[in-house]
Amino acid sequence: MLMAWLVPEYSSWACLAWRAGLAAAFAVACVQLALIRRRRRQQRVPGRLAQERGLVFETHPAAFFRAEGGPARDLGVLAAASVREDRSGYLSVLELFAGSGMRAARYLLEAGADFVWANEANQDVHATVVANLRRATGDGRSYAKPCG
Question: Helix or strand or coil: residue 84?
Answer without folding.
Answer: helix
